[in-house]
Write a structure and sequence with these properties.
Layout lengths: L1 H22 L2 E4 L1 H7 L1 H42 L6 H62 L3 E4 L16 H8 L24
Parallel strand pairs: 1-2
Helix pairs in contact: 2-5, 3-4, 4-5
C-alpha cells in the first residue's frame, strides 16, 4: 500500500513537471546584435560623434587662445627686464606681466574645468541614449514574444549565463526587422561604437 502511494505521488509529480514543461515556450534573442543593428543606435552614435568633434574644436580654440596669451605674457616679461628702457617703463611692464600671468593661469584652469564638465556631460548623454535604446528594444522583444506565444526570452549574448541557445527559436532577426521598419535608408547599417551594456537576460 505504501509503495502504491509512492507510485501515485511520483506519477502526479511527473505529470506536473511534464505539464509545466509543455506550457513553457522559450525563445532567445541576441540583445547585443539587435542593439548594434538598430538604426537608432547608429543615429545616436552619429550625434555623439558630432558632440565629440564640437568639443575637440572648442578645446583647440581655447588652447590656441591660451598659447597666444602665453606668448604675450612672455613678451611683456622680457620687456620688463629690458635694460634699454626706463625704470618706470620696466615697472609698468612688470605689473602688466603679472596681470597677464593671472590671465594665463585663469585660461588654463578654465580649459581643464570645461573639458571635465563636457566629458561628464557626454558620458551622461551616452548612458541616457543607451538606456532609451535598450528600453525600446526590450519592448519590441516583449511584443514579439507575446505574439509568438513565448513565456520566456533569454539573452543569448550573455554567454556567462547561457552555455547554449538553439537558433531555432532565435527572434533577433524578427526584432531587428520590426525596429528598423521605419528607418531611413542611409542608417540601417549596424553600429558598433556605443558600448552596449545590459545585465538582464529577459526583456
Amino acid at each position: 500500500m505504501k509503495n502504491l502511494r509512492l507510485i501515485v505521488v511520483a506519477a502526479v509529480l511527473l505529470t506536473v513537471a511534464v505539464s509545466a514543461s509543455a506550457q513553457t515556450k522559450i525563445a532567445s534573442v541576441d540583445m547585443k546584435k539587435v542593439f548594434n543593428a538598430y538604426y537608432k543606435t547608429k543615429m545616436a552614435q552619429s550625434a555623439l560623434d558630432k558632440d565629440k568633434t564640437d568639443l575637440r574644436k572648442e578645446l583647440q580654440d581655447m588652447a590656441e587662445a591660451l598659447k597666444k596669451a602665453q606668448a604675450d605674457y612672455k613678451q611683456t616679461l622680457d620687456q620688463a627686464n629690458d635694460q634699454a628702457i626706463s625704470a618706470d617703463e620696466r615697472e609698468k611692464r612688470k605689473l602688466s606681466a603679472q596681470d597677464k600671468a593671472k590671465d594665463v593661469n585663469s585660461r588654463q584652469v578654465a580649459i581643464e574645468q570645461y573639458q571635465r564638465q563636457a566629458e561628464t556631460q557626454l558620458a551622461d548623454k551616452s548612458q541616457r541614449m543607451i538606456g532609451n535604446l535598450v528600453k525600446e528594444i526590450q519592448e519590441a522583444v516583449a511584443g514579439k514574444a507575446k505574439a509568438g506565444g513565448y513565456t520566456l526570452v533569454v539573452n543569448s549574448a550573455n554567454t556567462e549565463t547561457f552555455v547554449f541557445a538553439s537558433p531555432d527559436n532565435d527572434i533577433s532577426a524578427a526584432v531587428v526587422s520590426q525596429l528598423n521598419a521605419g528607418a531611413p535608408i542611409d542608417v540601417v547599417k549596424p553600429a558598433a561604437s556605443l558600448p552596449f551594456k545590459i545585465s538582464t537576460n529577459a526583456p
